[in-house]
C-alpha cells in the first residue's frame, strides 16, 4: 500500500453515486469532467485522460510520469466499485470506494474546470462522532424526520459543532437546533443564537441598492465613477462599470483587492484594517482585464465598494443603513454588525476547517460584502419578507432586487440574489462563509418555502441548506 499512500497527483475519477449526490454547481462540474476521465482510464487511454488536466497537474506530473502512474498503478486498481460521495470541503469532493482494500478519493477541479487534485489512499473512517450530538428535534412529524435525515448526518460528522435551522412551510415557522454553541460546552443552540451570516449580507446590500433606486438617489445603470472621489473616477478603466454590475458580480473587478494583504496584521482578521484609503488606492490603479457586464466573477470587492457608494449617497454608515432601512422596519431585532456585550454572549463560537476556534470577522470598508451577524429567527423572518404574500414594508425594494440582471447559462443573478432554477425565476438563494461559519438562505416563491441554515463550522453548511430546500420541495 505504500504506492497508494504516496499517490497524490492531479486527476479525477467519475463516480456512480450510491448514497448522497453532489448538488452544487462545482460538484456537478467535477463529476462531469471526471466521467470523461473514467472512460479514458477504463479503455487505458492515458494520453486522452491527460488532455483533461490543468496546468498545475501538468507541472506536478509531467506526461511521461502520468503514463507510468497509469500503467503501473491505476490500471491495476481498476475497476473501482461501490463508490459513494461523502462530502465536499474546500472544493474537494471526498468519496469512499472498494478496491484491493477500502479506499478514499479526494478530488477537485481548478478555476478553468480542468483536473487539479486527486488523492487516493486507504479509507479513513473519520466521518462520525463517537457520541451523537444533542438536538431539540422531536423526530415525530414527517417534517421533523426530513430535517433530521440531513442534519443528523451533518452534525455527527467530525469537525461540525453546531447548527440552527429555520423553516417556513405551509404557513408556519419551524426551528431545529443541533450540537453545541462551542465545543464541549453542552449548550444547544437556539433560534436566538447569533452566527456570522457572511455573504448573505450581500442580499441586504442589494435591498439597499434597490431602495436607493426607488428613492431616486441613483439609477442601476449609473457609472460607479459618478459616486467616487474625482481622483478615483479619473481612472478610465472604472468608467464603464455600473452599480448594477457591482451587485450582480459582472463588473470585472476581482474577488478581492490585491492590496488587502498589505493591510493585514492578524491573519484571522483579513478585513479589519481595509479602509477607504486602501480601497480608493486600489481603484486608482485598477486595470480592467475584461469588458464589464459580460463575465460572471464573484466579487467581495465589488459589493463592498457598492456599500461604500451607498454610504456616500446617504451620508450614513453601512450598519446604520441596514438597521434603519431594513432591520427596524421588519423587526429584525438581532440582526446587526456591532455587537453589545450581551449580544456577544449569544454569539456561537466559530471553528475553521482544522477545528480551531476563530474569532468573528471585523470589517471597515468592505462591510457590505459580509459583516452582518444574525440568528435563525431573524434570518427566517428576513427570508419571509422576500415572499410577496407577506406584503413586506420592503416589498417594492425586494421586487426590484429579485429581477434577473445577468445570466451566462451557468450563473443567473438578480441584484445580489442568485437563482437556483434557470427556467423559473422563483427560487432565490445566497450562501455565506467566514473563517468560522457557513450559512444559507433559500426562498421558493412558488411553493412558499423559506429555509435558513446557520452553522458555526467552516465545512459545508451552506450546501446543506440547498439540500434541505430540495427535500422540503419534495415533501410539500
CATH fold-level name of the largest domain? Beta-lactamase
Give the fraction of residues assigned to helices. Answer: 25-40%
What is the straight-line distance between the termini? 49 Å
- Mean pLDDT rating: 88
Shape assignment: globular
Biggest sheet architecture: 6 strands, antiparallel
Q: If helices are DSSP runs of H or I spanning 4 or more residues, what is the number of helices?
A: 16
Using the 3D structure, state the CATH architecture of the largest domain. 3-Layer(aba) Sandwich
CATH class of the largest domain: Alpha Beta
Give the CATH H-level superfamily of the largest domain.
Answer: DD-peptidase/beta-lactamase superfamily
Q: How would you write the strand order of the largest sheet?
A: 7-6-17-16-15-14
Number of DSSP-assigned strands:
17
Report the C-alpha radius of gyration, rounded: 23 Å
What is the SS-derived class?
alpha+beta
In what range is the share of β-strand residues?
Answer: 15-25%
Unreliably modeled segments: 1-19
Number of domains: 2
Describe this entry's structure for a reader:
- The structure is a single chain.
- With 476 residues, the protein is of the alpha+beta class.
- It has two domains: 2-122, Roll (Nuclear Transport Factor 2, Chain: A); 195-475, DD-peptidase/beta-lactamase superfamily (Beta-lactamase), CATH 3.40.710.10.
- The chain is built from 16 helices and 17 strands.
- The chain has helices at 2-5, 25-42, 46-50, 55-60, 63-77, 142-155, 201-214, 230-233, 243-247, 276-285, 300-314, 318-330, 341-346, 376-384, 395-401, 461-475, and strands at 8-9, 81-89, 92-98, 102-109, 115-122, 162-169, 172-179, 195-196, 350-351, 357-358, 373-374, 406-407, 412-413, 418-419, 427-433, 438-444, 449-455.
- The strands form five sheets. It has a six-stranded antiparallel beta sheet with strand order 7-6-17-16-15-14, with helices on both faces. A five-stranded antiparallel beta sheet has the order 1-5-4-3-2.
- A hairpin with a 5-residue loop joins strand 4 (102-109) and strand 5 (115-122).
- The chain is globular and about 65 Å long.
- The chain starts with a helix and ends with a helix.
- Residues 1-19 have low confidence and may be disordered.
- Its EC number is 3.-.-.-.
- It is an enzyme of class 3 (hydrolase).
- Keywords: Hydrolase, Signal.
- Residues 149-463 form the Beta-lactamase-related domain.
- It comes from Parasediminibacterium paludis.
